[in-house]
Amino acid sequence: MKKTVVLFSDAGRNDLSLVGGKGANLGEMTNLGIPVPPGFTISTEVCNFYQHSYQYPDGLEREVMEALRHVEQAMEARFGDAQNPLLLSVRSGARVSMPGMMDTILNLGLNDATVEGLIKRTNNPRFGYDCYRRLVAMYGDVVLGLKPIAKEDIDPFEELLDAKKKARGAEVDTDLTADDLRQLVGEFKQAIKERTGQPFPENPLDQLWGAIGAVFKSWDGERAVAYRRLNNIPDEWGTAVNIQSMVYGNMGENSATGVAFTRNPATGAKELYGEFLVNAQGEDVVAGIRTPLQLMQLKEIMPEVYAQFEEIAYKLETHYRDMQDIEFTVQNGRLWILQTRRGKRTGFAAFQIAVDMVEEGLIDKKEALLRVEPDQLNQLLRPIFDMKQKEEAISSGKLLARGLNAGPGAASGRVVFNSLDAVEWKRRGEKVILARIETSPEDIKGMDAAEGILTQHGGMTSHAALVARQMGRVCVVGAGDLEIDYRSGCFQANDRVVREGDWISIDGSTGEVILGKLDTKPSEVLQVLLEKTLTPEQSGTYRTYHQIMSWADENRRLGVWANADQPEQAANAIAFGAEGIGLCRTEHMFFGGDRINAFREMILAADEMGRRAALRKLLPFQKEDFAGLFKVMGGRPVIIRTLDPPLHEFLPHSEGEMQILAGNLNMPVEDLKAKVESLREVNPMLGHRGCRLGIVYPEITEMQAEAILEAACEVTKTGVDVNPEIMIPLVGHVNELRDQDRLVRRIAAEVFARHGVKVNYKVGTMIELPRAAITADQIAEVAEFFSFGTNDLTQTAGGLSRDDSGRFLPIYVEMGILPQDPFATIDEDGIGRLMEWCVERGRATRPDMEIGICGEHGGDPSSIRFCHGIGLDYVSCSPFRLPIARLAAAQAALSEER
Amino acid sequence: MKKTVVLFSDAGRNDLSLVGGKGANLGEMTNLGIPVPPGFTISTEVCNFYQHSYQYPDGLEREVMEALRHVEQAMEARFGDAQNPLLLSVRSGARVSMPGMMDTILNLGLNDATVEGLIKRTNNPRFGYDCYRRLVAMYGDVVLGLKPIAKEDIDPFEELLDAKKKARGAEVDTDLTADDLRQLVGEFKQAIKERTGQPFPENPLDQLWGAIGAVFKSWDGERAVAYRRLNNIPDEWGTAVNIQSMVYGNMGENSATGVAFTRNPATGAKELYGEFLVNAQGEDVVAGIRTPLQLMQLKEIMPEVYAQFEEIAYKLETHYRDMQDIEFTVQNGRLWILQTRRGKRTGFAAFQIAVDMVEEGLIDKKEALLRVEPDQLNQLLRPIFDMKQKEEAISSGKLLARGLNAGPGAASGRVVFNSLDAVEWKRRGEKVILARIETSPEDIKGMDAAEGILTQHGGMTSHAALVARQMGRVCVVGAGDLEIDYRSGCFQANDRVVREGDWISIDGSTGEVILGKLDTKPSEVLQVLLEKTLTPEQSGTYRTYHQIMSWADENRRLGVWANADQPEQAANAIAFGAEGIGLCRTEHMFFGGDRINAFREMILAADEMGRRAALRKLLPFQKEDFAGLFKVMGGRPVIIRTLDPPLHEFLPHSEGEMQILAGNLNMPVEDLKAKVESLREVNPMLGHRGCRLGIVYPEITEMQAEAILEAACEVTKTGVDVNPEIMIPLVGHVNELRDQDRLVRRIAAEVFARHGVKVNYKVGTMIELPRAAITADQIAEVAEFFSFGTNDLTQTAGGLSRDDSGRFLPIYVEMGILPQDPFATIDEDGIGRLMEWCVERGRATRPDMEIGICGEHGGDPSSIRFCHGIGLDYVSCSPFRLPIARLAAAQAALSEER
Q: Which residues contact residue B282 at a Cβ distance below 8 angstroms, ignoring those fewer than 6 apart?
């Protein structure tokens, strides 16, 4: 055995495996000369010994007592002394933080005698008995095992406390008097006696050893073992036990307690920022009973302590090279640092601090990149509400519902319930929020016209969420508390009724739905990049953003492409750093004015000739769309997917719309209804869609290929380089791709001959069916590129309908059956294995195969790391996720480097 | 080069690679002393030489001419002789038969001079010119390449022929006179000249070499190359060219032509069976212009020829050790055998012949097993129509439609359109055919009551087809020509209207739907096995069946289990050889009288307590069902699947039924409608079903586990061995199974404690999601058995909804995109790979894992072979497929042995 007991002053951060995380941290601070309440650590070696033999190594007791003497000297008090009692805390501390381990026990050393000493020294009987009753309850719960395991059982001490409060007419704990608390101590002890048959140990040393034993036993507790299995933590690591002297900030007017950040956690500004209370315990700050003071005021009240604190804060930040969140207590004018840790911060602050620290020389660029969280970038990009105004609205009861924060940002507008109204109202100059039970491709125009989109159903990857993020629209989905009634043009939210035209505000970063109008403002980054209403010089936020992005670009290997259908979206994508278009959904182009009519005419045509006639009408529109994209993308690759959704998605379903359409097409409405009915599918997800359309109706793919290649030739002739890649969706068998590939190549030869120009193009496929991944070696014989459609791959491989999984998926995540929502982050064990296999097999056939991902996972940092790991060439995501993807890609490369 | 030209008399069946299949066959017969029209083969070596150099090897011409001299001598005629012309045929012949290769060219050697010789010798100008015009057209099409490639283009010779017929008012070719045909020869030659710029070659040797060259070129033709790629045939195999003298059966009254089988192809009886025509060509037999004579009559007309033929037939059958289909021609009293091949036969005949030949010592038992086709067993098992009666009905225009032959057998009954009526009418003693647009679990009772089931929609694995086969019901599905109208209680079929109560007959072996009543009779095998109306001694068919089955059982390694839910089904299954139950679908048990009400009450309950109360009512029913099964199965394993379908499948959807149910449950119908609506799913296949139900509503699995294990304990106490295996459906993640496994084991411990009895049981899972197969190593940590649900695995891995794929799957098979319907036969390249991976990974974790298949593929012979190959323990299928499975399993083992 290396060491059994280690004083804080003998430990440091390199001793992690010996003294655990907390011990190493306390040791590190002690050795920096920081005034940490003295203490010591019983090492993990003892834990291992204990696990094997259920006894302590020889000499442990002696060593603990020696270490205790050190602590007593430093604190000028004695453990168990009735006049001047030293009180201790005992905490577990494994190498990594482990929920499921033993809780902390505070105030060890109190008994009927020492409590009087404590009272005398603090002149505060209530405080003394409060500490005492807390000790007895904690000891009973944690050491003696009275804490109930099942949720529905009641803690015996809480039961007694509640009874006491009831008897006293007390609402909160603090309403109880010193005497009440003293009585509770007695009652608690009685409960322990009754339930365990043993009295509460009055001897402080018995208390101490009881607590130490409880920590070591907790390492083998059911929850801790389960947690280790789940997180692959070896049993041999063991836990350490930290024994530390208690200090109190409530020993009078020259005592205080507080929390401070070394920089502003909201803005990142380099300034001490914090709060404290004089003559108070840490809990009082949290409980919010007294309003805390700003840290600056400490400078006036206790100037020396403040100066010392300032120095310590600087030392800790410099030492840890990160913004610190520091807990401190002043006991009788003496400053104690209880804890320092990485300070939580907003996205703004995170980026500002990272950039500043590089400039200050504290960290290098690579470390700066690893310090920030990609998702926090959203905060730099999205329009935001005036925070104060929003909080006022919520506190005055205007919160209507909370949904999922599907499209970050803030939007206010008047509520409308259908796409046509959204477009119409916008034309009149109104700002609108489109509220739908759920959305479908028919709603695209309305979504585009709206400031924000709100749905009653659907999850983070529902149609509404997906399209909104791609469009950069604010979006809240799955607000289940709403009941939207299209017919009466209103929705109910709890007891309120909101009618068409009423103002509401939605916060897509938090999921809040608020009644009334709130002011919004676009982010500075957007003002610089897209609106050009600010220059880079005018915006510090932009400069921070730009700095991080350029460092990210220097360090990433993955390409970063965008999902975009329109020239305007493509232009935005380029502003956000897109190196290509990974997914252009052609079907979105079918929803403009005359186009949808022609498209419906195609669907409803009686025969191929009728379909061809209708498709001819669509050709010029598609060609124009593609030409626009090619011009904007100027030589960057553009992957265009041929028609994917089932045809019935393009037909109207309401009686009124059918009447109108039948009139337009000069067909009896009954015939139209019959046709709509005949196209209905039991499982549209697995139905007649994707390449199955282009194979059964080759004229559709022919038209689309012609439009793409015609546009490519025309743009090429203007001197712009063009690199189209034609992507065939939903391929399951190589022969499907072979069929469509042959067709595209035939059209290409015709178009090139007509124009006398040749354009480089590729034909490839989505990998969105398990069968495609499984037979990637065969498909790669034809496909020149693969693009993972991980949304559909997750649906099919897992048998999970995105639209229907709301009934069980949240429950699965809550129960821990699934670690996370597989639609948000790639399920590496399942879908990931399939992807890995696909990449291996595909490249075995075609070693230089271009492989990317265009599913929504392409914008998810954890999924991006996975994609980097399996060797993809690029990730493609919605334009507004691009900065996140660039950063995540850089982090993936840097993590691999380390 | 080994050999360039081989006379038939120098070749045999071992020379396959040198002379191809046809050459080897003709050589083999020649060497047996069979009078084959003499000829020779240009070897595959020449083909290879030609492919590399585009010229023939030195000396080929000389060798061909030498061989030709041999033929001329044997036939006593000369090639190109104007008086006594020898005519030749040229045919390609690769090692394996290859569609996509060159067609045959007949009558080579005819020109303006030799045709007169032919006419003189046959005394038949019409015949001479008919041969001649055929030669010119074939030569133009095949050798000179005038045969159109695209379907829509017209063959120039057919065009001229049609014009001629029109001009002569002729309906069929035979209406044309000798003179018409002579004119056509001239017109055909003119067409060749115009289109190719070259005249038709009058020189017979030019014709011969032209034909030979065309065969060799066709080896590199686009279709042949594509076929080789698809079937993995090496290019180096090459094709041979067979040159054979023509013989004619129309040279007078001492000439004839015919076809004969060495045994009766309908019954298998050991007797020569065939037809012939005097003074006729082979085509005349096929064209059906003259009624052919029975072979027996040849004995009277040409006794010597008949005797010779009888001897040859015996010799060929003995040589090939199988029933032969022999084509013969008698030219001027001389018998020529043109071809012999394995004779096609009915199932009855196939089995009879196999058993007879073993008794005769011609083949051994193993060979007998490999000779028969498992699917033909159906013919021995199904009730059948009186064939003559059926043919009369069809020829008198009573065929209403043709659908898919989903449930073999024959049934007549009065048509009804819903389940309730079917039950009601049956109670009145009526025989009914249940006709539905499609069926759902609600229809189970009606399907059970009906003689046969007919659906307008659905494929071979639709609900109707699946349940019908399991029940042994006659079934025709996907009869798309029907238009069923529930409201008016009738269906239209083309122009006829069939109303409720009208008699119809459906043939589930052919898919025919016929108006009116036809007589049926149960098969003899069924009468012995199930009805016991015949003893084994009374039925030859049964003895044949039993013989084949016992040989099969001696030779198979795969276990053969049945899918069955009811004791009666299980008893049938045992009669058919079941060794266990591979799938008991518990949901089918929820459709009896009170059960469905209790089950619906459970679904509609407001909370868990309500659900538990309703489930309590179901418990005794389920227990009774399981006890019944266990008793019948007596110790054989019984796999019971917990609830699988989505709950909405159990609720009514029509207005009327909802009214009734709401009344029964004392709830407002609007509430019921809202609940039904709220359970609606976009993609029910991927929705809230399978173990997802048991996880969200653990009380359902609890009740089912309790019912299974209670029943097991009770039956055990009666002294019967019980081996239940509880199967959790739709597991995608090991944690799902872990949850349900824990629950089942908890219930088991409770039940066993209550009964003081322990029962061996297993907990395992269906493998029906790709994710389950991919993570089989993890799932095997918990699962004690796997059972492949290949229907759903095919649906999810391929993204193919069984219910919706009718729009493209048939087109895919027709286009050759898929080699076959993946729902009928396991898609080995895709689903098969996944299964293989799953077996490997699963057994890596749990080497003794029991793995089987319970999807519909379990009864498909080709799929059974695959399951044998990847090492499954058993296949499970519907009871009536069991004999097929036993035989297929034996064949798989025997094929592997070889």
A: B249, B257, B327, B329, B338
- Inter-chain residue contact A686 with B830, CB threshold 8 Å: no
Catalytic residue among A854, A867, A868, A877: A854
As to burial, measured by CB atoms within 10 angstroms (0-12 exposed, 13-18 middle, 19+ buried), residue A189 is: middle
B869/A contact by beta carbon, under 8 A: no
CA distance A457 to A441: 16
pLDDT in tens, B733-782: 999 999 999 999 999 999 999 999 999 999 999 999 999 999 999 999 99
What integer is the mean pLDDT of B719-736? 97
- Residue B556 tokens, joined: 């198979």
CA distance B433 to B476: 10
Cβ of B733 within 8 Å of Cβ of A817? The answer is yes
Q: Give the count of alpha carbons within 13 A of B130, CB side only.
A: 15
User: Taking phi first (over 0 means left), then psi (-120 to 50 degrees means alpha), and beta for anything else, what does residue A30 get?
Assistant: alpha
Are residues A833 and B775, on separate chains, in Cβ contact within 8 Å? Answer: yes
- Evaluate the CA torsion angle B75, B79, B81, B86 in order and state its sign: positive
- Using the beta-carbon criterion (under 8 Å), do A739 and B817 form an inter-chain contact? yes
Question: Nearest-CA residue of chain A relative to B814?
Answer: A696
A128 Cβ contact list (under 8 Å, min separation 6): A115, A116, A118, A119, A122, A178
Structure tokens at A273: 């920022």
Q: Is A404 on the interface with B (CB under 8 A)?
A: no
Beta-ladder partners of B763: B726
Sequence letter at residue B786: F
- Residue A23 is which amino acid? G
Residue A573 phi, psi dihedral angles, 5° rounding: -60, -45
Determine the 3-state secondary structure of B450 from DSSP: coil
Q: How far is A239 from chain B (nearest CA, A)?
A: 28
Q: Torsion-angle region of residue A232: left (phi > 0), alpha (psi -120 to 50) or beta?
A: left
Sign of the Cα torsion A792, A798, A804, A807 reads negative
Q: Does B830 reach chain A within 8 Å, measured CB to CB?
A: yes
Residues of chain A neighbouring B804 (CB-CB closer than 8 A): 681-684, 686-688
Strands A723-728 and A637-641 come out as: parallel
Helix axes A204-218, A44-53, angle to 10 degrees: 80
The structure's pTM equals 0.77
Q: How far is A737 from chain B (nearest CA, A)?
A: 9
C-alpha distance from A744 to closest chain B C-alpha (Å): 17
- The token pair that represents A852 in the structure block: 């990317």
**Contacts A799 to B, Cβ<8 Å:** 685-686, 690, 730, 732, 768-771, 792, 796
Strand partners, B485: B490
- Average pLDDT, stretch A669-698? 92
Residue pointed to by tokens 């609108």 = A432
Task: Indicate if A688 belongs to the active site.
Answer: no
pLDDT of B869 higher than 70:
yes
Task: Tell me the residue type at A767.
Answer: I
For B685, the closest chain A residue by CA position comes to A683
A653 is catalytic: no
* Interface contact A739-B771, CB threshold 8 A: no
Looking at the partner chain, which of A735, A801, A831 has a beta carbon nearest the beta carbon of B687?
Answer: A801
Residue A282 has pLDDT above 80, yes or no: no
Q: Within 10 Å of residue A92's Cβ, how many Cβ atoms?
A: 25
Closest chain B residue to A810, measured at CA: B696
Convert the pLDDT of each residue in A498-528 to its tens digit: 999 999 999 987 889 999 999 887 888 988 9
DSSP codes joined into one string, A407-450: E-SEEEEEEESSHHHHHHHHHTT--EEEEESS--GGGHHHHHHS
User: Min CA distance, A811 vs chain B (Å)?
Assistant: 7
Alpha-carbon distance B114 to B444, whole Å?
A: 73
d(CA A22, CA B420): 72
